[in-house]
Specification:
alpha+beta, 15 helices, rod-shaped
Length: 626
Amino acid sequence: MRAWLDSIQLRRLLPYRMTSQLMFLVGVSVALSSILAAGVFTYASINRSREVADEQMLYLGKSISSISSGLIIGRDVAGLEELLRVNAKLPYVESILIVDVNHRPITSVIKRGEVLMASYDMTLVKPDASGLRRTYELDSASKRSVFFGLHPLDEHFEVWLPIEAGTQIGSLRVRYSLEAVNDAIMSRWGYALLFVLLVTVAVLVLLAVLLRAPMQALGNITAFASLSAVKASRQIPVYSGTKEIYELATALNRLSITIRSHEQNLSDRMAQNQAILDNLADGILVIESDGSIRSCNAATSRIFACEHRDLIGASIDRFIPAAKLVNKSRFLSEFVERSHSKQNVIGAEIEASRMNGDIFPADMAMSKTSDHGEAIFIGIIRDISERRRLDRLKSEFVATVSHELRTPLTSIHGSLKLVESGVMGEIPPEAKKLVGLAQKNSSRLILLINDLLDMEKLVAGKMPIQLVEVDLVSAVRQSLADNAGYASNYHVQYILETSCEALQVQADTGRLAQVLANILSNAAKFSNGAEKVDVRVREVDHHALIEIEDYGQGIPADFQGEIFNAFAQANNGNTRQQGGTGLGLKISKALVEAMGGQIGFSTQEGMGTTFWFTLPLSFDDAASGI
């Protein structure tokens, strides 16, 4: 049903405004209801009026029939005519006719307006034997109707009655007109329609008066809702005459306050975020997929030495020369992949160009996202010109340390060792003690310088690694022997546990010894009075696993995440007392990973620490499953 109504599109027949629609629907409803009521009343009035008229005419006919029987027998035509004239004066009567049994007219009277005329037409007239009322039409008469032409009004009727005096001696025809009744009916129908019109107009006027205030309030609410998107927090006067409009206005007022609050919060957050972005040292760019710059922060303008307006809409290859070599979208996508493949936050080092054409080094990371279904790229760029300058200074410093400090220190250390050994002659015990202390400190300085040099090589990627096939068990035994003297200073003994006679791995012999020395020395230093350090060598998942376990205090929880960082030392008295550069584990981690292995630790405070690292087996051992 609803689909059918939608198909004929009845809504197009309604006015556009809601007030007009309501008044139209109410007016139609009132009019139809009133017309229906008036129609029922008029129809009942028609039937009743005709019934009364029919009864009167039937009674009149019977009276004339009864009186005229004697006059017919006495052949008193004048009396019959007078009888008919008297009765023809009555309302509704049009004519009265009396015929004999042979259908010959005896006499008749016809009424034309207020004039009665006798008729002596001898044309035979056959009576209707049924005795029922029937209609007849005049040639000049036009039939009227009510109910907008749906119900015609018959006006001319006739009825035949027998005239009897023992037997039928004639027939009586009475013709009558209900024109006066129909006039009254038409008048009533006109009054009914006028009443319907007046009632409808009155209802519409009353409805317009009643709807004026709520419709005006609804219009204000609509205008308010339209303006709320522009001027939030405005309040509309609440119309309380209609529950629904009152609730709607109240809800919109609350919504307006909420929108204003959210807008204020959003504005504050945007201002805060913009302030953060503008005060960042790193430049942030939003780049379209075609390589044009959509937006950037103030740092980007400083880095590229140009105005903010010069950056917006400019192509990225204007500032990154490498982007000119390939399709910009491809360049950005590949840069995203390179950025994500790095462990550091800044993706890759590039050469960038300032607005004046100066080339400078920069770190840049790129990520890809989407905005309304369109791919965009977020770039973070940092000018590393100062860092490069500091790197050069550091390299120069390290070179100075290497040439100006390590060589004299080596000579000093060798000389002190000769003096301590008595080559120069016997020295007093007190002097020998001082020489030993000087030799120990010179060794410590040499180790520090060596660590600094190794760290510099690792950072520069210049640490030489020569992988060869090494017997790990033999290498561990040799390292334990080499570091046994150091362990004895802490009253610690290294204990080797292994079920392997030999275990061939791919490693750099010297760097493997350096890693073992770093971890073994730490285990001895931090044994905290324990008598041994356990060293285990075994094969796990086609890798060689070396575990070095001490039974000291363990590593504090707040330091465990930093233990492999450069210059990392736990902030406790024992660490400071034992000394060290804090570079050993950082260097060890880099060396193990350079040899294709992994390094890690497990610890429990108060119980000790186990450092472990793995190395790949040589091809022969991996194939044989040793």
